[in-house]
Amino acid sequence: MKEMIKRTAVVSIITSLIFAVLGIVMIANPEAAIEIVAAVLGITVIVIGAEKIISYFVMKGNLDFFNYELIYGIVAILFGILIMTHSNTFASIVRIIIGIWIAYAGLMKINISFKLKSANISAWAVVLILSIISLLAGILVMFSNTSSIVILTAVVMIIYAIADIIDEIIFINNVDKILE
Known about the structure:
0% strand; 7 helices; mainly alpha
C-alpha cells in the first residue's frame, strides 16, 4: 500500500516536471510551442489518466486518501483525447484547458490538505496554501484575455509545477503517519 501511494506521488512529481518544462518551452518560443505542447500534453494527460484509473482499482476500499482517482483518471483521459484529436484548435483553447486542469488539481489538493490535517500532519497548511494558489492561478489562466496569454499560461504552469512538487514531497515524507 505504502509503495502504491509513493508511486502515485512520484507520477505526480514527474507530471509537474513535464508541466515546468513545457512552461519553459512556451516562454522560449511561444509561437511554435503550442503544437509541441498540444502533443506532449495530450499524451501526458492520457498516461496520467490511465495511471489514476489503475490506482483507483488497486487501492479501492483500502485507503480513502485517493477516493477521487477514478474521476480524475476519466477526466484526464477525456482531456488528453480532446487535446490530441483537436490539436489544430488547441491553440485557441490551450489556456482554458490548462486553466481547468490546474484549478481542478488545486481543488483536489485542497481535499488532500484537509485529510492531512485529520491525520495530524503539521504540513497540511502548506499544502492548503499551495492548493489555493494553484486554484486561483488556474482560474486566472481560464479568464485572462491579455495579449501575452501564452507567456502567462507558461508562468502559471511553472508555478503550479513547483507547488505540486512541494505538495508531493510533503505527502511522501508523511506516508507513514497517514497510514497509521
